[in-house]
Amino acid sequence: MDAILTNTTAALREPRAAIDRETRLTLYRRMVECRYLEKRAHDLFLQNLIKGTSHLGLGQEAVAAGFGVAMRPTDYTFCTYRGHNHTLVRGVSMTKILGELMGNSSGLMRGKGGSMHLTSVEHHMMGSYAIVGAHLTIAAGAAWSARYRGTDQVAVCFFGDGATNIGTFHEALNLAVVWKLPVVFVCENNRYMEYTAIHEVTAVEHPAADRASAYGLEPILIDGNDVDVVYTTALRALDAARRGGGPSLIEAETYRHGGHSRADPGKYRPEDEVKEWLAKDPIPRYRQRLLDLGIDEETLVSIEAEAQRKVDEATEEARRAPPSDERIAFENVWADGGAAWRN
Q1: Could you give the number of structural domains in the chain?
Q2: Entry pTM
Q3: Residue 223 region, left (φ>0) first, then alpha (ψ -120 to 50), else beta?
Q4: Does any domain span residue 54?
Q5: Assigned domain for 337 exists
Q6: What does the DSSP assignment read for 81-144?
Q7: What is the mean pLDDT, run by run of 10 residues, along the chain of 343 residues?
Q8: Within a domain: residue 338?
Q9: From 152, 175, 284, 316, which residue has the greatest number of CB atoms within 10 Å?
Q10: Does residue 198 lie within any of the structural domains?
């Protein structure tokens, strides 16, 4: 796998240097917005304003931001229950996301979906999936639909390392290659499948990249905490899919800052490991890179202040919204849109 890392890095060296200033600032802005939004979600949970559990992507912002900026508005996103960041970068408002987490009428789905089922067809955000691996085959189906209709849309499917041991991972990859579907599979390898380290239950070191060659795909293993690398890799994979080159499988190594969910303190992770990965936090890392490239501190502070303002405004809007009407529980249940005919 060392060769894979070296080759991938070499291939990305030139495009990374070519990223323009405004794109870099957009990448930073997206990461900061994701971080501030999820920190606020955590605070609201502690205030008992968010019910149930939720799964935060703190520490994994570079993957969502890198792909979110690289994708076209018409491309499709499919992600896991750890999907707040992926939803935000596709253009869904903070108010709608926080409202959905609070379960009230301001929510993206009026509180019916909650944290693990964020969906916005308008933004081509085609759902967060609570069943591990279930969405890989659905993403392949969306890609098949795009090819059948003759559009240049690409489906991008994000999943965790644990999904690589699920049957649908292999089924989706196999058919995507056989049919040359315009789909990009992105494994967000944060090293833990809920509470179990992925290496303890997987025969290969890199659960996605080491299996790519079995399906005739290039093994692509990248630093998922480097947003420049994620962005340039995304551009290359999206372009290949649009040109009829078929699917890509990308393994982005990253790390969640907290436990699996709100109820998990994450104590099973070695302290040295946590310390090492916190030092690779994608946001301060990229902030320093921007400063080194000559972008002034005032510009970055302005981006951070604007992100904080957006989160504060969205929080107040979501908190002021009335509760959802209980009748929405019976909407979109049956083919005619309601349940009345069943009674």
Answers
A1: 1
A2: 0.92
A3: beta
A4: yes
A5: no
A6: S--HHHHHHTT--HHHHHHHHHTBTTSTTTTSS-GGG--BGGGTEEEEESSTTHHHHHHHHHHH
A7: 40 60 98 98 92 90 98 98 97 97 93 92 96 97 97 98 97 98 98 94 97 98 98 98 98 95 88 96 98 98 98 97 89 70 56
A8: no
A9: 175
A10: yes
